[in-house]
Amino acid sequence: MEKIQMTTPLVEMDGDEMTRVLWGVIKEKLILPFVDLKTEYYDLGLLNRNATKDQITVDAARATQRLGVAVKCATITPNRQRMEEYPELTEMWKSPNGTIRAILDGTAFRVPIVLPMIRPVVKNWEAPITIARHAYGDMYKAVDMTTEEPGTATLTFKGESGAEKTLTVQTVDGPAVWQGQHNLEKSIRAFARSCFQYALAQKQDLWFSTKDTISKVYDGEFKRIFEEEYEASYKAEFEKAGITYFYTLIDDAVARVVRSRGGFIWALKNYDGDVMSDMVAAAFGSLAMMTSVLVSPDGTMEFEASHGTVTRHYYRYRNGEKTSTNPMATIFAWSGALKRRGELDGLPDLVGFGERLEAASLKTLEDGIMTKDLLPLVEPGFQVRGVDSWEFLDAIAARL
Q1: Which tens digit of pLDDT belongs to each residue from 84-125?
Q2: Which residues on neighbouring strands pair with residue 378, listed in sequence order?
Q3: How much is the pTM?
Q4: Partners of 158 in the beta sheet?
């Protein structure tokens, strides 16, 4: 068979542990037999990030800006436990996702993959809920420290004009922990525009929530900017499309989401989106069944799985076991990137391949062949069997 041709490469970011293993298998079984794959490859595995002092992550993000499309494998963000596990680490490197998101300054849209035989835990949810997560700043670009003695912490801004503003954070009488975080007006505004544009493209209502009653200035800026953008640029289009923009406090939003039927976009700040996307994914079925795409204001897109590196399965794999790790989110990251590359380069065959890859993956699940994490979620009356990851990918390849 003549392979489907690509004209422009996409950025390929390899990752860690079990997802890195499956990354290679997905390419071998589902992509390389059919596509003359062209990528700029960046190894974002933890040890290579350490060896390059994390420069490889910056290089991958810059390449994504240049080429416009990237696909990323899950990666380790080291904590103290990982520092002990990997004694060669010279630093507790920051989240590569956080670094990439800061450079691309985009919005992460996460949508659950829905199956007829798996009903959401929240029984009244009838349609997917899309999480729109701001992908810059807050605690992901924060600085923090601990102190051991009584004293006072202040927050000071020194402007280029020479003007200064200083606030007292707190006076403490003993050991304490501190954190300073920020965001940029232009990034918040880009986030708002991306959300409104995405809502119009999907013809879905947009909800936005913060906690501006407590964080009156910080969260208040998010609320103000969203309202400005909506009133100035999007209100008429929303009304014409028959969709609504709705703001409420995040605790009220959580209650409303649980009572809703789904089928809307929920825009959230960085940390809120991180947490709620996992909650929505788990409630719809599994974290491994959640697609994720980072969209920059200029249209640059980075596709990734929204879950981690599946460490427990990796340890079993290293001991010679074949695990039943769900690769669906990683497959959809590849299919999304290939479709986007095909759209940008005017290659309908490549777009069609991405669509067929997704269809073959869903058909395999609908035929009752699935990884074992999904078995307890299947509604009574459906005939299903659990297989390991390699058997599952072979079944997809047969349908593809």
Answers
A1: 888 899 998 988 988 998 898 889 999 998 888 888 889 899
A2: 118
A3: 0.85
A4: 164
